[in-house]
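USER: My hope is that you can spare some time for a protein that puzzles me. I am handing you a single protein, as its sequence and its fold in token form. Walk me, if you will, through where the backbone shape changes along the chain. The protein I mean follows directly.
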Amino acid sequence: MRYFTVLLFILFSLSAAAQDNPIVQKVTGTIINDNSLLPIANANVINVNKVKGVVTNGKGFFELEVSVSDTLHISILGYQSLRIRVTNDWLKNGTAKIMLTEKAIALEEVIVKKYDLTGYLEVDTKLIPEKENYRYSISGLPQGYEAGESSPNAFTRVLGSIFNPADALYNFFGKKPKELKKLKAMKKDDTVRNLLESKFDRETISVLLGIDKKEIAEILQHCNYSESFIKTANDLQIMDAISECYEQYKVLKKK
């Protein structure tokens, strides 16, 4: 009986060790143009579940750490993005060929004329309206809040969002704690961080957080970021803004 107990203890210890140190699996693939069949270099391949990414080499080849059923998001400028699920067959059969389709983009002549300028600096400077964005620092909180344009109720909106976080943000932050934990992981992976820094379409953030692009703008509005910031910031800045707001929400929710 004593030997049987010892044997069970050893088996249990080995099982626990296996769970703590899972076997690392990797998939390999080659990304090619579905029309020319030529390899596509510098395509971004991101494991949405593990928030890790790589970039294809000159031959379109990539290798990435995965688990079965993980989702890979593949994107590159000028091509339609693609999502692929990792299967046991892929892991067993080796390198897979993945085809991307080029986007059909029609370029037309566009005349941009927002203001009727005269060509005289002194006159034109008066024709263009000034729009400033304000951020407020509040004692006791480490970060500031951007309220957008100067208006009589801008500061009131900031206070309302800070001291009633559940009313403004619970519908998003309260229901997606797992997805929001990925925010920290995004900063640690060089490929993901570099990709976000170069993009302005919110696609990658949308995929990684499992939300619609429209929700991203709504979240930042509730966090009192200005309209100009929401429209002009790159995806890395947007990710940092959501992360900052989420961290403050967690602190205020506990209080």
Observations:
- The two ends are 53 Å apart (CA to CA).
- The beta strands are 25-33, 44-47, 52-55, 61-66, 71-75, 82-85, 96-100, 133-137, 144-149.
